[in-house]
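Chapter review: from sequence to fold.
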Amino acid sequence: MKNFPNLDYSPWTFIQKRSVDALKELDVTIDFLHLDSEHRTDYVTQELEAALPKMAEKHVMTTHDAEGPAGAAFGTFSEKHPDYTYKVFGDWHGQGF
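The token string follows.
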């Protein structure tokens, strides 16, 4: 935002805090969410648990390191929530989304 001060950011909400804390405070329905968190499976699992109740019925959630900690967290999360389905799309350097 500092590099582009003349752009209109009014449709966006920027929140600077840990995602789990921010998700608890938000009273919204989220259509698109990108998670790039601590690269620990337990933390990513906490993020998913906090995010899912806020997500729209049809939504897109992207993550950094989808084939690493986030992928492991999605596996753990899916065991607890078998009705939640997802797809992982890897990219050329394995980070995926």
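Two observations follow directly from the output. The first helix runs from residue 19 to 25. Strands lie at 30-35, 55-63.
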